[in-house]
Task: structure prediction
Amino acid sequence: MREKKSGAPRKTPEGGMRVTFYLPKEMARWIRDNGGSSWIRNKVYEAMKEENKMTFKVLIDGNTFDSFGSVKEAKEYAKKLNSQIWAFADRVNAAGENENEIAKRGILGFQFANAKEFRHWMDENAYIEIEEESEDGESIKKEMWEDF
Result:
């Protein structure tokens, strides 16, 4: 039977790897006392975040509604918009003969000629996306958020 090796792995399944730094003794002790590799990792992430300054845009049907500095804030806003859209759909569906009048009022700046057009928009275009954008305006990643 083979023994499990101790110590840090050369590479992790997530793509991480062991790195060796040569530091003065007092610096190494200080880092170890203040969180070790976790402290270093967190400081590097902070520096990378400052360097890249990401923006997360919330879009519906390709139209930007707002921009946020974190994906968490963008998701919370997307949930709020999603709730508003479904509440409006419930009002249209419960309106009976007045459904066209309710649909014509529109929601979030989208206008509809009648309830049929609104339902088509709900089926085809009412998807919420969160787009990750770098400081220079380059779109890095776009994700559709169907399930919140």
About this structure: The chain has a mean pLDDT of 80. The chain is about 45% helix and 15% strand. The two ends are 47 Å apart (CA to CA).
